[in-house]
Specification:
The chain is 11% helix and 38% strand. By secondary structure, it is mainly beta.
Length: 186
């Protein structure tokens, strides 16, 4: 069983507009629940509002249901020049096999990659076509194209502003997140 640390409880309460409840820095958790990508521990029957808190300094996303932390994932957020926006957002759309309309590659008619990292607006070589980067298990959090999705995660800022999750955690977050879920990015 995983219990929420006082620091995490304070984070939730503060995010929801309340004051701090407990003295920070007292952690109660089970080491066996931690894995390199993160963990998910949602007890059967747990209900309540969903909340995702993304910490770009720690490069992690915490998932709460009914005020209880049920998940944690390593992330990679936006790199210099492509920062992930800070603030409070909501999940506005979900797409299990979303493709980027801004970033991807250029491939030929046989599917061979001609340009590995391509940004829409750059010249396209003759015989090439744009192929949007895969953003599987996508949760859209801004109308400007910021998504939380499966991607390469190094636990360092590496994306063009999106929040990348390891495949396993992206799938779990996708399957458990209703439209309208509050997402706080700090």
């Amino acid at each position: 069983m995983l219990l929420v640390s006082c620091t995490a409880q304070n984070e939730i309460t503060s995010a929801l507009g309340g004051g701090y409840l407990f003295k920070p820095d007292t952690l109660f958790s089970s080491a066996k629940d931690a894995v390199s990508d993160g963990y998910w521990d949602k007890p059967s029957g747990l209900s309540g509002s969903h909340l995702i808190i993304v910490d770009t300094q720690l490069q992690q996303a915490k998932y709460y249901i009914g005020g209880r932390q049920v998940g944690l994932s390593a992330i990679s957020s936006g790199k210099a020049g492509h920062g992930t926006p800070r603030g409070t957002f909501s999940v506005i759309a979900k797409d299990i096999d979303h493709k980027s309309s801004s970033y991807g590659s250029i491939v030929d008619s046989a599917g061979n990659t001609l340009v590995e990292e391509y940004t829409v607006g750059e010249p396209i070589p003759a015989g090439g076509r744009y192929k949007g980067a895969e953003m599987n298990f996508g949760l859209q959090i801004t109308s400007g194209g910021i998504w939380m999705h499966e991607g390469i995660v190094t636990s360092a800022p590496e994306s063009h502003g999106c929040i990348r999750l390891p495949r396993k955690m992206a799938q779990i977050f996708y399957e458990n997140t209703p439209i309208g879920t509050k997402v706080i990015i700090k």
